[in-house]
UniProtKB/TrEMBL annotation:
Keyword Transferase annotated: yes
Domain PINIT: 120-282
Ranges for domain SAP: 12-46
Protein name: E3 SUMO-protein ligase PIAS4
Key words of the record: Ligase, Transferase, Ubl conjugation pathway
Organism: Grus japonensis (Japanese crane)
Signal sequence extent: none
Residue numbers spanned by region Disordered: 69-94
Amino acid sequence: MAAELVEAKNMVMSFRVSDLQMLLGFVGRSKSGLKHELVTRALQLVQFDCSPEVFKKIKELYETRYAKKSSEVAQPQPQQHRSPEALSIHSSYDRGSTVARTSISTTNIDYPALYGKYLNGLGRLPPKVAKPEVRLVKLPFYTTLDELLKPTELVPQNNEKLQESPCIFALTPRQVELIRNSRELQPGVKSVQVVLRICYTDTSSPQEDQYPPNIAVKVNHSYCSVPGYYPSNKPGVEPKRPCRPINLTHLMYLSAATNRITVTWGNYGKSYSVGLYLVRQMTSAELLQRLKTIGIKHPELCKALEFVPRSYRGECR
């Protein structure tokens, strides 16, 4: 049954709007809404109410669609049409903005279950490609509880300097409870947080947090505060910016509703990747206890390992 559920979710993720509407109409559910809303509704149907009849209908829609696609493969495609890989959930949103819209690349993302993952409405299931994954350095003052989105490359689709990369995901009930029941570090700031991390797309070694130029992060309908630049007292020296995980928790829907995150970034030649994580910020007492459990090490080894990024200093409370 578990294998059938995974198969059904993968098929649903590849459906067009018309396929999703036919599926939802088949079970008597609402067919109105944007594509990402239809996808979420269909995935909830698969997750909680996937009867043999529903699974049969999903398979029928999937086979009908790809039988039709295979018969058209020999026909030349108009140049202005985007390839299926370029289609994303946000394609039904307003395209009137002068900011170029791009989806987060999904070449290294497994097709997800409903909760806690990036939902991308690709036109078809791409083949599995084994490639090195971007890794981020471990956070010194946080314990990682869940990986909501693997480090995923921000891919520009034109020559515009300013790009937008949307991401749609939902938290599981367990993740929501962890956040709600966690203690407050200060008013409005929970110890369990959903954080966004951005780094260079480099698979040779674990990467530190690094922001692209002109970064802005929008969560649902509000912009999230991003650390600013440190002032510089030296003439001719550019101010530095502390690059650290960005806490999105206070702007998210702590329910079964989907959350939409949009990263605006400057495309100036360097490649960046983003990841989403559920973390718990440690207290000073917990950090001290961790140091005690490590034990005494040789001074030379400590010198070699001694590294706490300046951007993280002051985060431990």
